Amino acid sequence: MKRALVGGKRWIAVLVVVGVLLLVGIGALLVKTVPGVARLVYGQPPTRQPIECSTVGLAGRPEWIAFETQRGRFGDYEIFVLAPDGSCLTNLTSSWADDVAPAWSADGRHIAFVSLRDTLSGKLDLESGEIYLLDFDPLAGRAVGEARRLTHSPSADGWPAWSPDGDQIAFHTDRSGDFDIWAMNADGSSPVNLTNHPAVDKFPAWSPDGATIAFTSDRDGSYDIWTMNADGSNLVKLTGSPARDRYPIWSPTGARLTFNTDRDGNQEIYVMNADGSDPVNVTHTPHIEGLADWSPDATRLVLYSEQKKDKDVYVLDLATGQWTNITNSPSSDEYCAWWP
Question: What global pTM score does this model have?
Answer without folding.
Answer: 0.83
